[in-house]
């Protein structure tokens, strides 16, 4: 598992590639926001199965394994449960190290 803390206004896809260098997954399950050719090419080059639905504006949409994509809800439920803990959901720490110490 790898973790990266970013500002709220920063796109998540910018941290996907650096985090992939720290782990070796069999599949990369993500939503449409991660539908970018450079990321998908890097995944395929490393032998990682990209399970990312195509955006509507993609000219040649590809098929994904929806049996794997259905498992994405486990991750979504995990983050939803984290938000129930007020101490984590409303952290206003200024330093990254202080914020991560609470998690």
Q: Can you offer a commentary on this structure?
A:
With 103 residues, this protein is mainly α. It folds into two domains: 1-70, no CATH class; 71-103, no CATH class. It has six helices and two strands, in the order αβαβαααα. It has a two-stranded parallel sheet with strand order 1-2. The radius of gyration is 16 Å and the shape is globular. It starts with 12 loop residues before the first helix and ends with a helix.
Describe the secondary-structure layout.
Layout: H1 13-20, E1 27-29, H2 37-45, E2 49-51, H3 66-69, H4 72-82, H5 86-89, H6 96-102
Parallel strand pairs: 1-2
Short description:
The chain is mainly alpha-helical and 103 residues long.
Total of helices: 6
Overall strand count = 2
Poorly predicted runs are none
Helix content: 40-55%
Strand line-up in the sheet with most strands = 1-2
Question: What composes the largest sheet?
Answer: 2 strands, parallel
Round the mean pLDDT to the nearest integer and report it.
83
Q: Report Rg.
A: 16 Å
Query: Terminal Cα separation, in Å?
Result: 14 Å
Domains, number: 2
Order of helices and strands: HEHEHHHH
Secondary-structure-derived class: mainly alpha
């Amino acid at each position: 598992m790898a973790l990266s803390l970013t500002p709220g206004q920063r796109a998540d896809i910018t941290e996907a590639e650096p985090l992939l260098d720290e782990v070796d997954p069999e599949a990369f399950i993500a939503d449409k926001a991660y539908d970018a050719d450079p990321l998908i090419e890097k995944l395929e080059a490393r032998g990682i199965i990209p399970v990312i639905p195509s955006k509507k504006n993609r000219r040649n949409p590809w098929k994904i394994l929806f049996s794997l994509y259905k498992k994405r809800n486990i991750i979504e439920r995990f983050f939803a449960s984290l938000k129930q803990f007020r101490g984590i959901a409303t952290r206003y720490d200024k330093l990254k190290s202080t914020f991560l110490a609470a998690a």
